[in-house]
Design a protein that fits this description.
Layout (H helix, E strand, L loop, with lengths): L2 H7 L13 H9 L4 E5 L6 H11 L3 E6 L7 H18 L18 H12 L4 E6 L8 H12 L4 E7 L8 H5 L3 E4 L8 H14 L1
Parallel strand pairs: 1-4, 1-5, 2-3, 3-4
Helix pairs in contact: 4-5
Length: about 200
């Protein structure tokens, strides 16, 4: 896939953040085996930076989706997921089936959706990072995301950032204690976080 196509679908993860690292949050997330991690806070609290730190600190098969208003269209949303999977498989030098129907939307989205979920389930472990998932609120794409979370294997895990409460169905995950919830107060840097940053800087110098 060309750089232009990657930018077109907005599936490029941010570069590994430098500077402060929220160690108290990062380590529990790294060892957690829960299905869904929700990072919720107002703009400016560093949700995306923290999610990027989680992304770059793990070595599992992963894709990254930056959500925009256009993704409320279910065809656009599914194509974004499909292209992210395609890029991941290309980087792993693996072949895959074509789900995108040569750029045309299928008469029904269900076969496309089931094929994508089946591909995710083939991995022994697979992480999906979704930045700004609240931009899907009130759309069919939000229902599709709910279906993907519900119908993929427990080995497929989701990490999302949002400003508002998530609106896709997740009550069953709460009952099964399969959600890690990070709020704005959790994103505040601790004294140890700041101290570790200066210790790291001194080591570099």
């Amino acid at each position: 896939m060309t750089e232009q196509l990657v930018d077109q679908y907005d599936i490029t993860p941010p570069a590994k953040p430098k500077g402060l690292v929220r160690e108290a949050l990062l380590k529990p997330i790294q060892i957690s085996r829960k299905k869904l991690c929700v990072v919720q806070a107002p703009p400016g609290y560093g949700k995306t930076v923290f999610l990027a730190q989680v992304y770059h600190e793990q070595n599992t098969n992963s894709i990254w989706l930056n959500i925009t208003g256009k993704d409320k269209d279910p065809v656009v949303f599914l194509r974004k997921i499909d292209e992210a999977l395609k890029m991941h498989q290309k980087n792993k030098a693996k072949t895959r089936y074509c789900h995108a129907f040569d750029g045309l939307a299928p008469p029904s989205l269900s076969p496309w959706l089931f094929s994508i979920m089946g591909e995710m389930n083939e991995f022994s472990s697979f992480n999906i990072f979704i930045n700004d998932c609240d931009l899907l609120n009130g759309s069919e794409s939000n229902k599709i995301l709910s279906d993907i979370i519900r119908d993929t294997a427990i080995s497929v895990r989701f990490y999302v950032t949002t400003v508002t409460e998530i609106q896709f169905n997740h009550s069953y995950l709460l009952m099964d204690e399969q959600i890690v919830s990070i709020k704005q107060d959790d994103l505040l840097f601790t004294f140890d976080d700041i101290k570790n940053m200066y210790l790291t800087t001194d080591d570099i110098d």
